[in-house]
Write a structure and sequence with these properties.
Blueprint (H helix, E strand, L loop, with lengths): L1 E2 L2 H9 L3 E2 L4 H6 L12 E13 L26 E2 L8 H12 L1 H13 L9 H10 L4 E5 H10 L5 E4 L8 E7 L1 E2 L5 H11 L2 H10 L3 E2 L23 H5 L2 H10 L4
Parallel strand pairs: 4-5
Antiparallel strand pairs: 1-7, 2-8, 3-5, 3-6, 3-7, 3-9
Length: 258
C-alpha cells in the first residue's frame, strides 16, 4: 500500500492495518528519520512545505523578517496570505510541527493569526493556491515543494518563487511512502516490492514521478529540484510529528481552519 502523506501512513498504521516489515535493505537505504520506529511503514520520498510568494509583488527585502512560518501571522501579512486546506497533504504535519515547536496554545494562536490574514478562502489544493499567487490574488502562501516544481514545469514564466528560511530546521518535511497490508494475500512479494523501491534507481524514479526528493541518499535528484535538496537533508524525525497529528486535527477544528 502506498500513501501520499505522513498523516495517511500514521493513521493506517495506528488502525493496525499494516504489518511490520523487517528488511535489511530498507534499513540500509532509508534513513531512520523517514521510517516508522515500529517498522510498519517506510518513507520513499519527501517534500518540503515552502513559503512561496509573487516576486512581482514582493521584494526579497520584504521577506527578510520571515524567519519561520509563524511570522506569516504578523500584521504585515494582513490581506496578503493564502493557505490551502488543512486537509491538504502536509498541512496537518505543518500544524503538528507548530505544536512541537511552540506548544499547543501558541500553535493555535499562530493558526488563528494566519486565518485572520487571509486574502481569500482557503484553497482545496496547493496547485490552486500557486495559481492564485501567480496571478496576484495573494502575495504569499505555503505550498509543497513538489507542487511548486510541477507548477514551474508548466508555467515557465510564473512569478512564483520561494523564500528559504535562514535555518533549515524551520522547514517542515512531508513524506510519501508505503507499507505491507496486515491482510495482504502475498505479503512476501509486497515486502520485496517495498524493499526494491527503497534501492537507488527505483527510488529515484519513484520520487521523480512526483517531483519529490528520493528518500535514498544515493538516488539521483531531478535537476528541477536538485538545488532544493538541502531543505530536507536533515528532517525532523517524522514519527515524533505523527504522534501529534490527533492534536493537530483538534487544533484546526478549534481554530476554524478548514
Amino acid at each position: 500500500l502506498l500513501f501520499p502523506s505522513l498523516a495517511d501512513l500514521w493513521r493506517v498504521a495506528e488502525q493496525d492495518a499494516l504489518r511490520p516489515t523487517f528488511d535489511a535493505s530498507i534499513d540500509s537505504n532509508i534513513p531512520a528519520e523517514l521510517r516508522d520506529p515500529e517498522s510498519r511503514w517506510t518513507g520513499l520520498a519527501s517534500n518540503a512545505r515552502l513559503l512561496v510568494y509573487n516576486s512581482e509583488l514582493l521584494g526579497v527585502d520584504e521577506l527578510s523578517d520571515v524567519a519561520d512560518y509563524a511570522a506569516l501571522g504578523t500584521e504585515q501579512w494582513v490581506g496578503k496570505l493564502c493557505l490551502s486546506s488543512s486537509r491538504v497533504s502536509g498541512n496537518l504535519t505543518l500544524v503538528a510541527f507548530l505544536i512541537q515547536k511552540h506548544g499547543l496554545r501558541e500553535a493555535e494562536i499562530i493558526v488563528r493569526r494566519w486565518r485572520a490574514n487571509l486574502a481569500s478562502n482557503v484553497f482545496y489544493t496547493d496547485a490552486a493556491l500557486l495559481d492564485a499567487v501567480s496571478t496576484g490574488q495573494c502575495a504569499a502562501g505555503i505550498a509543497g515543494s513538489h507542487v511548486l516544481a510541477a507548477h514551474k514545469s508548466v508555467n515557465r514564466n510564473s512569478p512564483v518563487a520561494f523564500h528559504p528560511f535562514a535555518d533549515v530546521a524551520e522547514v517542515v518535511v512531508e513524506v510519501s511512502g508505503g507499507g505491507v497490508s496486515r491482510h495482504a494475500h502475498n505479503a512476501e512479494d509486497a515486502a520485496e516490492l517495498l524493499s526494491w523501491l527503497a534501492t537507488s534507481a527505483p527510488n529515484a524514479l519513484y520520487a521523480a514521478l512526483g517531483h519529490e526528493f528520493p528518500a535514498n541518499a544515493a538516488s539521483t535528484v531531478t535537476p528541477d529540484i536538485e538545488s532544493w535538496r538541502q531543505l530536507v537533508s536533515d528532517p525532523t524525525r517524522l514519527s515524533a510529528l505523527a504522534f501529534l497529528h490527533d492534536e493537530a486535527v483538534l487544533l484546526v477544528e478549534r481554530a476554524k481552519y478548514p
